[in-house]
Design goal:
Elements lengths: L3 H13 L2 H8 L3 H15 L4 E4 L2 E4 L1 H25 L5 E8 L4 H13 L4 E8 L1 H10 L4 E6 L8 E5 L1 E5 L11 E5 L5 H12 L4 E6 L3 H9 L4 E5 L8 E2 L10 E7 L5 H22 L1
Parallel strand pairs: 3-4, 3-5, 8-9
Antiparallel strand pairs: 1-2, 5-12, 6-12, 7-10, 7-11
């Protein structure tokens, strides 16, 4: 069984993104952290990190270890607090897509945290592909995921009706490649757009790529191209042009939980569920 101190250094390297920054977090030198990781790799008889200069990324074995390491460290903290009688703080880790009503949802979860002094909230906005991996690794307790309909268990799910959206001044020439405004690779909307265009025999090109919704919306307003998005992303100066482009099947917004979550996380999930229900009703009106 690995020493908890070694696991703490391992998790710190992952969270900090490197050995030097991890050393600062755990108040040790970079060389000491490196030695601890080497010792952990020797104990487990596998490589945990791929080292490329100052950048590090997890191997498959490292990804498998990460969820276990976090749970072991959390359990260790729980034991100490139970024995010492200190009040425990529940940390809830929530993952949400960048394009899902981030401002409104942030207000809802912030109010949830304010009403529960014993809860510490950690929110991560990212692409669904990254959030899915984080949920599987045990890095998240609750996550909203955009996915294919019915693709696994979920606390609740809502259909997403996708539309081709552009700015006021864009005119698509039938003989020219469709200029796509899209999230980076790994986004289900991007994949749906490309597959639909190719199936319809339309050429396409990536005209603008951004990991955040505000960038895409600005590109649409500026007339750089057309994006496949949910109607909630539509700004007043945008327009839907579904008639001129291939139809797109619905995707799904799913509210998912980690395999084992504490009651506060379930309470947050129910709060998010209520918010999503209201959003679905608002968009359907």
């Amino acid at each position: 069984m690995p020493d908890l101190d070694l696991l703490h250094s391992f998790v710190s390297v992952v969270d900090a993104g490197g050995f030097t920054a991890a050393g600062e977090r755990v108040h040790r030198s970079q060389s000491t952290v490196s030695q601890q990781i080497r010792k952990l790799e020797e104990i487990l008889e596998c490589a945990l990190f791929i080292r490329e200069g100052r950048q590090v990324s997890l191997t498959e074995d490292g990804e498998r270890l990460l969820g276990y390491a976090r749970r072991m460290l959390a359990l260790s903290t729980e034991v100490r607090e139970a024995v010492s009688g200190r009040k425990r703080v529940d940390v809830i880790r929530l993952g949400v897509p960048d394009d899902f009503a981030a401002d409104k949802l942030t207000m809802v979860v912030a109010e949830f945290a304010r009403s529960r002094p014993g809860v510490r909230l950690s929110v991560r906005c990212d692409l669904t592909s990254a959030l899915t991996r984080a949920l599987e690794r045990g890095d998240l307790d609750v996550a909203l995921l955009k996915r294919e309909p019915g693709a696994g268990a979920a606390l609740a799910a809502w259909p997403e009706h996708l539309h081709w959206i552009c700015g006021p001044g864009l005119n698509l020439a039938p003989t020219e490649p469709v200029p796509l405004v899209a999230f980076p690779q790994g986004c289900i909307y991007r994949n749906r757009a490309i597959h639909a265009l190719e199936a319809a025999g339309r050429h396409w090109r990536i005209a603008y790529e951004s990991p955040n919704l505000m960038g895409l919306q600005a590109a649409l307003t500026g007339g750089l191209g057309v994006a496949l998005l949910e109607r909630r992303c539509l700004l007043p100066d945008h327009r839907i042009i579904d008639a001129g482009l291939p139809p797109i099947p619905s995707t799904e917004l799913a509210l998912c939980l980690a395999d084992t979550v504490r009651e506060p996380a379930r309470q947050l999930a129910m709060t998010v569920r209520e918010f999503c229900e209201k959003e679905a009703m608002r968009l359907a009106a």
